[in-house]
Design goal:
Alpha-Beta Plaits, about 20% strand, alpha+beta, about 550 residues, 20 strands, Beta-Lactamase, 5-stranded antiparallel sheet
Length: about 550
Amino acid sequence: MIGSLFLGRPSRPRATGPTALREPAVSGTPEGPVHPAPAETRTAEPALTERHDGRREAELRDYRAAFRVARLAMALVDPDGVVVAANDSLGDLLGTAPGALREQAAADLVDLASDGHARRAYREVLGGRRSRFRCTRRLKHPDGRSLWAEVTVAPVPGSRRVLLSVADISDRRELQARLRHLQMHDPVTRLPNRTLFFERLSAALEAGRQETGAPHASHEPHASHETHESYESYGYGRTGRIGLCYLDLDGFKAVNDTLGHRVGDLLLAAVAGRLTECADGDGHTRGGGHLVARLGGDEFAILVEDSTGTEQVADLARSVLDALQEPFDLAGQRLSVSASIGVVERAGRGTTATALMQAADTTLYWAKADGKARWTLFDPERNAHRMTRQALSSTLRPAVEGGEFALEYQPLVDLADGAVRGVEALVRWHHPQFGPLAPNRFIGIAEEDGSIVELGRWILRTACHQARQWQKDHPRERPLFVSVNVAVRQVWDSDLVADVAGILAETGLAPHLLQLELTESAVMGSAGRPLQALQALSDMGVRIAIDDFGTGYSNL
């Protein structure tokens, strides 16, 4: 009916003039003969047609009136994209008289030519190659205010024209924006939360890849034949680099535990304020306007988009440390906290949000391990060492079971006559990935994760077996003693006395042919069980030697 409304013609031709009387009017039944109808019947048809056309004209007037006063803003557009008619609501929405919209390009009125996809889809609807197109546009009203509009373009049935409808969705968008703000911000500090931070970080990295010409996936939504949603994008700089300060408060847990969460929340909010001031500062290299986010607990992050280099991010980290030096006066308390900061700066191309955060987390750990209250810059070499260490740690226990370790024996010579009196057993790890590894590459790791107990037991058993075998192979020669290094954790985490006694009984090696070496710091720095174990081993006849003597407590 809308098609008939603006085409200005009825859908059925009206018969007029003498020819109308020439149409044969017949009557009859299938069983009987057909005879010409009476004259009065023939004259009834024009009257019926006139009544039918009258009803259609009335309907058209009703539809025109409904179009004109409808609350939904609408316009009829011809195949060339020119407005044929517009209703009052569209005029009110666009701030102009409906008559002034006629003969104007519809695409210009609702910004359908601003991006390639919308322009192509609109033309497809005009050309009859698409059933419908919908998009969201931000329009400018003549009075200066902006409004969000949902624009729909669909063909008019039975016509080459299309109907353009524009719905004001500003209130809906405002509500969505408020809900998104609540969803994306931390209620304690009012800062962006982890979700928004990673959204911005991912967008910044994508912008960096675009700036440097790296391959990337388009963020433009794929529109179906039914709908197309536009999106807003942030404006980024032109360096293609990204910087990050990842910080953790030192001493915050003590405040929370002693003064309660209410004071802790006040402190977090106060810290957030100082971080924001630093990020918005006018320092000669800081730039300002960087995103500050609370990632959770007492962890914060400052994102530097369009970074100019390491010095810019380092300067920002220094300003944060300076800002936190001044105590906080909160709830009648004077509170002090510091921060450990991990600093990462790199090109957006070739990295991901996950990789960047892993680097920042590692660097933050270094800052804490180095003494806290400091910032530390990411070091690729140090990180490579950390990753190697992690790889060794994860494969150390299976390596003991897999037979990847071997012992080498270093002669121990009597200085008086130069004769070999014993050997020191030195463990080597033939790692399938890193090759032969000396003890300094993995013993510390084994002590940290506890695998030193199993490894130490294997070393002790293998060394005793070898010493006993040499004794059997050379019965006439003076037997050699074997010296084995023992970590203090072996004493704490296992029954070393029972292990030694069992291995000596298993191998048949005499106790005086076994020497156990411990470092001076391990012996002098321990009390209780380690010393008791060493005394019991000595009473058993096992030799006890102090390694690196003079480098620890006895040197004081």
